Amino acid sequence: MISIFNKPRNYPRIYEPYSDQFNFYEGRVKWENSIKDIPQRAIYLFSVHWLHLEVFNGGFWQYFYNSTSISYPEAMEGFKAIGMPEVSKIIETAAERVGNPFPFENEMRKKIVGPPNQRMDFIDLDYEFYALADTNKFFRREPKFVPFAEKYAEKT
Predict the structure, then answer these.
(1) What's the domain count of the chain?
(2) Nearest-angstrom CA–CA distance, 49 and 54
(3) 148 in a structural domain
(4) Backbone φ and ψ of 128, nearest 5°
């Protein structure tokens, strides 16, 4: 993955062959069906990547408001697998704030986390996540999770 804003990364090559199969748009059951034949390493890296994109862009509120959050269990396990269990714990805490059991149904979850003008507050967890998994650099930035993801992607 190459961008003028991001340092090139290699880990996406693990999940890119399956990009058309991942389906987090139609609920947890369809998500689970879409990933059943995909290697676990690809699922974890895809889920870690998307959680980072969403949280970096709009915090945990955005992640849980959007359909991508149905993959939160895989993102949580993915951060553990790449060697960042502290980040996994932050994700777990954020998900528990939304509900226990977690509301995988998108419309129910949107009601819980609220619309953009009445957002559920995740700011404490957003900052914890940014401190452990992201960076403040804008151009050619490499989030802190990337070296972990790259190392995990290289495992055979």
Answers:
(1) 1
(2) 9
(3) yes
(4) -65, -45
In this prediction, residue 7 carries a pLDDT of 62
Within a domain: residue 143? yes
Q: Which residues of the chain have pLDDT under 70?
A: 1-8, 135-141, 156
- Rounded Cα distance between 31 and 47, Å, is 11
Q: Would you say 46 and 22 are in contact if contact means Cβ atoms under 8 Å apart? A: yes
- Closest by CA to 6, choosing from 139, 132, 145, is 139
Residue 156 in contact with residue 14, Cβ under 8 Å? no
CA distances from 119 to 70, 74, 138 (A): 19, 24, 26
Q: Give the residue numbers spanning the domain of 112.
A: 29-154
Q: Please give the Cα distance from 87 to 84 (Å, whole number).
A: 6
Residue 71 domain-assigned (yes or no): yes
Looking at the domain assignment, is residue 116 inside a domain?
yes
